[in-house]
Amino acid sequence: MMIKTEKTLCLKSSRGGKVRVVREHYLRENVPCYNQLCQAACENEGKTLSEQLTHYVVPDAGVVRDFLEVLEFRELQGIVFMQTACHAAQHSRGRRLYNRLRSLLKDPRHDCIHFANEFQLYSYCPRERGETQEKWQSRSIYNAAVWYHDHLAGLRPVVMITEDKEAIAEYSSCTSGVYVISTKEYLETFWPDLKAAQELYCSIAQALLEKESESTEREYTEHLPAEVLEAGIKSGRFIQGILNVNKHRAQQEAFVRFEGSANKNTDLNSDILVCGGKHRNRAVHGDLVAVELLSSREWRGRTTALQEGVGEDKAGGGGGGGGGGGDESQVQSQTQSQPMPTGKVVGILQRNWRDYVVTFPPWEEVQSQSRNSQRILVIPYDYRIPKIRISTQQAEALQDHRVIVRLDSWESTSLYPNGHTVRVLGKSGELETEVQTILVENCIQVPQFSEAQLREMPTNSTEHPWRVEAGEVSSRLDLRDTHLVFSIDPIGCEDVDDTLSVRLLPGGTRMELGVHIADVTHFVKEGSLTDLEARSRATTYYLADRRYDMLPAVLSADLCSLLGGVDRYAMSVMWQLDATSLEVCKVWYGRTLIRSSYQLHYELAQSLLNGEDAEVPELSRLQANGTSEAELSKRRVELLEALRQLTRVARHLRAHRDQGGALELEGVEVRAQLDSSRNITALVPKQPLEVHETVAECMIYANHWVARKIQESFPHQALLRHHPPPRQEFFNQLQDSARTRGFTIDTKSNKALADSLDQAVDHKDPVVNRLLRMMATQAMSNALYFSTGACAEDQYYHYGLALDRYTHFTSPIRRYADIIVHRLLMAAIAADKDTEQVPSTALASNKDQEELAHHINNRNRAAQHAQKQSTELFQSLYFRDKDPLTDERCTADAVIYSIRANGMLVFVPSYGLKGAVYLKNRESQVVGVAEDGSCSWQGGTLDRQLDRISTTTATGTHTFKVFDHITVCISVQPNRCHPLNLCVEVVSSKPHQAAPSPEAPAGTGDKPKGRGRSELVQEVVRLAEEASQQAKEGKKGRGKLSKQEKQYRQSKQPNLYTVLQEIAQLALLDLPACEAMGVGA
Ligand SMILES: [Zn+2]
């Protein structure tokens, strides 16, 4: 039954006036209730509320509008969002709120549903004459709550929550079983343990209260209305783009980068400079803004000098939210700051606000700051974010803490944006707080896997061992008895996601190469909770001392790990190659069942290949079990032959790519050496083994062929990865630097670049080539995922690998892109088998795929930033407690790699760190160099050339050139609110000579000689553990905070080893990963 009625809507016109619209409105008897308790056979498809709950909760319009954040806590269950409440909230708060509501309702990890109360015949109530909009909304929602309660036959109470005291008075005792209470009361009564939600509630309520008492004096120009902005952008009068604040000059300098190429002002090919706060007009770093150009007389230049205490940082550090980093390689390419297009922000098209970590000002400052001591200005960790005004009564208690804050609004009458606190992270300066800060700043959310997620996982325990399912044996190609499958990984590797096989086919004219990858998608079903969690993480996150896995351990370390001697599901690519020419004759893709025979590590595989008599553990075990010598030697020969064939094939493949111009750039420079209990004893310089390259080459090959396959099958919606060629001007610094040593770097093509980098070797100083490769890496753009329908085919090219098509297929355990690619490959195989049955119904559209690609790219960037920042954190914490004057570890050799107006940038190989060295200080003194090389501040002058900089003082003139080795002293500048800064000072113009017999500083004992990063991480972790131990003994734990810490910390063991190996793999497989580590590794 359907009943037609009329409904009057009051809409706001674009000019702000009110428009009355009468709409036909259809009422039905059956509107799904999405509740498992349903007694009426509703058509409840999709997400439903559990019948296990003690009650259901109905927020009214005001609660949805102002406190949605509180309702976003995953712990809150059984939320019924009434249509009336959603409409009203959306009407007053716009698209952003609507999007949040929508994703909340869609996300199965949140226990909430939408009930269309206005379409339900009996719950709908038309607005009465004279009734205000708000009154009607309250009444509608209350009526709907009552209906919902009755619809469930009164089996559970329904609680309506509201901030409206009148509504509470009017309705709270009308219907038994339907309660009307305030949000505060609800949280305190029903969720007493969820303190975080209560605190958030109070913080928002406080902010709302303060907002009412705002001043009316205007500090900024009003933003133009949306339709004016839109028309202006169309006509070319305004330009839209993302605002990027220069973190080194956050108050003064911001740039607007065009969005895509949809820009009418084609004569503009640079960013637009926005100077000062007034012209920035309340835009926050990362916002999508509309700017208007100033007349060219008002254009200004950008700054190129080094900023005090800040090193060079291409990525721009900090922000994980949308915006991306400030591009300093452009700074490098401009020798002087000529006037550039300069503009002002006239409107904001989209706010891209995220959670910000802030520090409270010192208490004395708070007290003097304002008459109203509840409102204070807090300082964001990210230099690019303005101070935020918040209301709190905890300013004194939280003085030394880092706290998460969200922005609420920034009115034209307010000098600073308003915000509210969300959560306390912990005391600033403590390792855990600092690591959490890095996660939050990069929008990385890695809660522990929930019980519901873990319930989806298969079990594998001694009582319930996992077994191959019978159905799978028949549907898969069984390679267990036919193929010699083996893996080659770093020593001690737990998650083996790839294995290999190679054999001569009967007849002897063809051979078969196989790459077998963990079949993760067999266990992770599309749309499952595990899938959604993996999708939102998009990658495993590696920090200097820990990692956060994308998948639960039962998969990543066990059932999806292709361990030796056990049956495992795999996704395979197998090529039939001509045995002599190695040309591909045939390719097969599909699901297989494998049992890896050997779990080799790189060094073992290499020594076997070198003909050394290395012990193979699997064979020794057979020997111990009484296998005959003849059999053993047969097996040994078999394995050796496979390794040799593999090497031959890989050499062939590599040669092929080299012809096409594949690049090898500086990636990992150190390798961890472990003792028997897997502790790192030393970091040794990289000694690349050929077998590393052999394995990498096979993986690249598999990725390439899978890319071809899915692109051919799905030309408009396959997920590929491309690497755009770099912009030529980014190579200027590389070329200038190389020239100082007489090398020419040809950047015309990737082949030319690769060849000339190979030539640029200074035999006396290996660091030169390393630095040149590092600069080349920095000049590169990032490789990115994309959907084939979103890009022209000539843009599919992967510049670094010199391949026309590429994707990620070989690491589904730690990359979500590979999971998608596995599904696409299965769909492609299904389509081949049955051309009638079009599988595209299940496939994501081009638009969805492109959106996903964007998300994964964004998360990868966040992962890189977080990794880099955590490396820097450890470096800072390492040096923080050392006295640079007495501790020899603070003195090190450094190499100059770039010259700036007032100093230079150096690389410190022993710690893998980069920093800025100033040659001029605030008092305008310059660094004078004595005859013995020692340096001191003196009166004098500075003279900068392209590749050198000279200081002249009473003691004479010294010239620092690119690639010179100098001695530096490393210390840490204290910083309450922002990341700690390493301060690098030149102490001698000569290379650092480590003392021949170093007196080890007290407490360090006899150090292994591989001092550097490993020692650094270990020591910082040890100190942090000692500190927390002391704190525990002192205060018997820290209660709430330590619980939160646990949440953030899944793998407690510091695991630099895994990190380095992972990076090694990334670097070999995929060039842009080097960028993240270009400095650090
Ligand atoms: Zn129902």
DSSP strand count: 40
Quote the beta fraction. 15-25%
Chain-averaged pLDDT: 82
User: How many helices in DSSP terms?
Assistant: 30
Q: Give the helix proportion (percent range).
A: 25-40%
Shape: globular
List cofactors, ions and other ligands.
zinc ion
Radius of gyration equals 32 Å
User: First CA to last CA: what distance?
Assistant: 69 Å
Q: Which segments are poorly predicted (pLDDT under 50) over 5 or more consecutive residues?
A: 308-336, 666-686, 996-1011, 1035-1081
The helix/strand class is: alpha+beta
Strand order of the main beta sheet, please? 18-25-24-21-20-19-26
Q: Summarize the main sheet.
A: 7 strands, mixed
Short description:
This protein is 34% helix and 23% strand. Zinc ion binds at residues 33, 35, 38, 40, 42, 151.
What's the helix and strand layout?
Layout: E1 2-12, E2 18-28, E3 56-59, H1 61-71, E4 79-82, H2 83-93, H3 95-106, E5 112-115, H4 133-151, E6 158-162, H5 165-171, E7 178-182, H6 183-190, H7 195-211, H8 226-235, E8 238-245, E9 253-258, E10 272-275, H9 276-280, E11 288-293, H10 328-333, E12 343-350, E13 356-359, H11 363-369, E14 375-380, E15 388-391, E16 401-409, E17 418-427, H12 431-441, H13 451-455, H14 470-475, E18 477-478, E19 485-489, E20 498-504, E21 510-518, H15 520-523, H16 529-537, E22 541-542, E23 547-548, H17 553-559, E24 567-578, E25 584-595, E26 598-601, H18 602-609, H19 617-624, H20 629-660, E27 670-674, E28 680-685, H21 690-713, E29 719-722, H22 732-740, H23 750-759, H24 766-779, E30 784-787, H25 816-833, H26 846-880, E31 891-900, E32 903-908, E33 913-918, E34 926-929, E35 935-938, E36 940-944, E37 948-953, E38 956-961, E39 965-973, E40 981-988, H27 1013-1035, H28 1040-1048, H29 1056-1069, H30 1072-1077
The site of zinc ion (ZN) has 6 residues, from loops.
